[in-house]
Design brief:
The protein has a 4-stranded mixed beta sheet. It is built from 6 helices and 4 strands. With 151 residues, it is α+β, with helices and mostly antiparallel strands. The termini are far apart. The protein has 2 domains: 2-48, no CATH class; 61-143, Ubiquitin-like (UB roll) (Roll), CATH 3.10.20. It is 34% helix and 22% strand. Strand 2 (71-80) and strand 3 form a beta hairpin. It comes from Planoprotostelium fungivorum.
Amino acid sequence: MVYIQWDFILDYSLIVSPLTGLTKKGVEFVWSVDCEKAFVELKRQFKTADICRHFNQQLPIILETDASDFAISGILLQEHRDGVHPVGFYSRKLRTEELNYDTHDKELLAIVESFKAWRHFTMETLTPVKVLSDHNNLKYFMTSKNLNRRQ
């Protein structure tokens, strides 16, 4: 059931990180305090998660992204008459090579991967997409003269 619902849970990858380590080949299954906390939080998220609305190409889109030391996430939101509501959630753990990225690269990766995840929505919208990120390091891309291939 979790696999089907993962894209409706905010920061799913961050929450389940202690649990996914238990599924690796050759790893002894030890239920830790962190695993229990993750499990309890996942159950709480299932009970209290925001109800996602259907996408409407005529409504304004907001893409809210974030990155941590080991995961990236994004929320696709739309502005309705009664407020801003989620259309979907995206998150994933960082790959081994991505763990070494600088903070501004992780934040940019969250934006790019979120756009990829919701390409079918963002390409058909009739309004510009507003991107919200909580990191000032993204200003680096506006001032840097030498960007690498990843950027």
